């Protein structure tokens, strides 16, 4: 085997690091915090109003186990919080629980030694019904626009609270969906939210998004005056991170058994926080801080910046208003931070504020490489499994070089030189500005590229910024076609 080719894999393995960090005491929830906002009183809020939730896992395949695990887990949190199944709408491809690679058929976990989160999850939109189009129809409560699925939609009224949670791969300006040709484009999603607001179909909404470059979904796009508060796992120009990954021996056997990451850093942070607190006492702003800290401190290099957008007054709202609260947590008050994952046995366990958080984190987009690598590594020499894993690894690596090559070459053709091209294509607009001015151009350019050069796929989504920058610098569709055709008809597509 030619080991040089696997530098990428090795770089990933090397980056798996464990860190210890002292947990910091986080501010105590100040009960006066929400009083002057006038709308966060838990009792007045919900005498007349329903809590709705839309949960979306945007991926499929076993190497993306974690996204569906996150979404199933979110369902359990909300269910325990008291939301009814009729008000929780789940999008998941549903190819994990009974996947042939799943060591525990019918079971999905979201952390090592964790409970089965698959139990009872409503299968509203599964398989080919998990599309951007259906997501918009569900949010808008427009049953006649649906194509497939259970028909459940957010049939909400002016007093209702809506929580939307999405987990998957993304790229600048886009979120992935497993079954449709189309991505969720930031501009389309925000347009749907504005329409929902115009329809007077909610009182307040909260959106949590885990994906690479997820800040770009709202940056410069989400208005502050439509009663929506959103947080994202990463800013507009960085990866988000998977966690509970194989190779993290601190957690022992379940991970060796799994060969795939079980969760995502931002996602498990908010959910594990919810599971340890009385949500009648915790504000959105407090949870943001807990999640931001845990996500940022995930490893030595620092991981992603958890961001917030929209109406900042909603930071004073109680989580209870959107997620309910598990009565079993009534006695928990969030006086200390919640990111204690497991205790270091070398430390004095009675000292509550001193604990160790230890994990292996990998970039979202490297999750599949890690999965193939582990399969390869574990399989007996010259077994069919080993050959299959090697083939998958090789294919992924050549798919990546194909995409790298295409973008590089197209850029050079468009901008004359490598230097000029990288200046334009890599440019990151300042925080607060949308990714692109002309979103129609962006969508057409993405489609044009994919038509001639193949799907961007998980890895290639990182290049949507380059494509957006082509629009921002005035590249026309004809010019893009002229550069793509010679480039991509030569480069072989794997
Ligand atoms: C609930 O709120 C709606 C809209 O404000 C109102 O029309 C309705 O009477 C309320 N119902 C109850 C039971 O308070
Ligand atoms: C619902 O969707 C259908 C089909 O796309 C559309 O014709 C109709 O106008 C939509 N209804 C509303 C209320 O937006
Ligand atoms: C999609 O929805 C339709 C209509 O509910 C259903 O018959 C079909 O089985 C669904 N497809 C998948 C793959 O779940
Ligand atoms: C929100 O603010 C923008 C910009 O100031 C304004 O154009 C828009 O009409 C406002 N929307 C609502 C719903 O108040
Ligand atoms: C976004 O993340 C990148 C990479 O981590 C960092 O260099 C940049 O400063 C961040 N920008 C903002 C606005 O947080
Ligand atoms: C690169 O950009 C500069 C400034 O826009 C331009 O003068 C130059 O001709 C470009 N180089 C090529 C090879 O097109």
UniProtKB/TrEMBL annotation:
| Gene Ontology terms: cellular component | vacuole
Signal sequence segment: 1-18
**Coiled-coil intervals, chain numbering:** none
Q: Supply the alphabetized keyword list.
A: Disulfide bond, Glycoprotein, Hydrolase, Protease, Signal, Thiol protease
Q: Does the keyword Ubl conjugation apply?
A: no
In alphabetical order, the GO MF annotations are:
cysteine-type endopeptidase activity
Carries keyword Cytoplasm? no
Q: Catalytic residues per the record? A: 169, 212 (nucleophile)
Among Pfam families, the record links this protein to: Legum_prodom (PF20985), Peptidase_C13 (PF01650)
Q: Name one GO biological process term.
A: vacuolar protein processing
What range(s) does the Legumain prodomain domain occupy?
391-488
Family, according to the entry, reads as follows:
Belongs to the peptidase C13 family.
State what protein this is by name: Peptidase C13, legumain
Source organism (scientific name): Trema orientale
- Top-level taxonomy: Eukaryota, Viridiplantae, Streptophyta, Embryophyta, Tracheophyta
């Amino acid at each position: 085997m030619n080991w040089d080719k696997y530098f990428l894999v090795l770089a990933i393995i090397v980056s798996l690091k464990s860190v210890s960090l002292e947990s910091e005491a986080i501010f105590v929830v100040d009960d006066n915090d929400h009083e002057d906002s006038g709308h966060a009183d838990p009792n007045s809020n919900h005498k007349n109003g329903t809590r709705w939730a839309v949960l979306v896992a945007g991926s499929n395949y076993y190497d993306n186990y974690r996204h569906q695990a996150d979404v199933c887990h979110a369902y359990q949190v909300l269910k325990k919080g008291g939301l009814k199944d009729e008000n929780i709408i789940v999008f998941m491809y549903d190819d994990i629980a009974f996947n042939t690679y799943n060591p525990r058929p019918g079971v999905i976990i979201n952390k090592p030694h964790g409970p089965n989160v698959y139990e009872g999850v409503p299968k509203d939109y599964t398989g080919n019904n998990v599309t951007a189009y259906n997501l918009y129809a569900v949010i808008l409560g427009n049953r006649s626009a649906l194509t497939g699925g259970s028909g459940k939609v957010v049939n909400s009224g002016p007093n209702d609270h809506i929580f939307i949670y999405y987990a998957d791969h993304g790229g600048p300006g886009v979120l992935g969906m497993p079954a449709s040709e189309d991505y969720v484009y930031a501009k389309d999603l925000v347009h749907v939210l504005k329409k929902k607001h115009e329809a007077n179909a909610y009182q307040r909404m909260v959106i949590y998004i885990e994906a690479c470059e997820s800040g770009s979904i709202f940056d410069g796009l989400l208005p502050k005056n439509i009663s929506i508060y959103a947080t994202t796992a990463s800013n507009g120009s960085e990866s988000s991170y998977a966690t509970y990954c194989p190779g993290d021996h601190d957690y022992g056997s379940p991970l060796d058994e799994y060969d795939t990451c079980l969760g995502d850093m931002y996602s498990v942070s908010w959910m594990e926080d919810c599971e340890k607190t009385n949500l009648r006492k915790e504000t959105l702003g407090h949870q943001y801080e807990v999640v931001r800290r845990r996500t940022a401190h995930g490893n030595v290099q620092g991981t992603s910046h958890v961001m917030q957008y929209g109406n900042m007054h909603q930071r004073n709202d109680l989580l209870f208003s959107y997620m309910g609260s598990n009565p079993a947590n009534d006695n928990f008050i969030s006086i200390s931070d919640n990111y204690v994952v497991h205790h270091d046995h070398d430390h004095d366990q009675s000292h509550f504020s001193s604990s160790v958080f230890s994990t292996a984190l990998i970039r979202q987009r490297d999750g599949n490489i890690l999965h193939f690598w582990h399969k390869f590594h574990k399989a007996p020499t010259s077994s069919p499994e080993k050959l299959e894993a090697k083939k998958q690894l090789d294919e992924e690596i050549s798919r990546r070089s194909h995409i790298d090559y295409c973008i590089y070459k197209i850029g050079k053709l468009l901008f004359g030189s490598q230097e000029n091209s990288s200046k334009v294509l890599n440019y990151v607009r300042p925080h607060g500005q949308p990714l692109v001015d002309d979103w129609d151009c962006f969508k057409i350019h993405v489609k044009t590229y994919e038509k001639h050069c193949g799907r961007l796929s998980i890895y290639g989504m990182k290049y949507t910024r380059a494509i957006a920058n082509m629009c921002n610098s005035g590249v026309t569709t004809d010019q893009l076609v002229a550069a793509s055709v010679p480039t991509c008809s030569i480069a072989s597509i794997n």
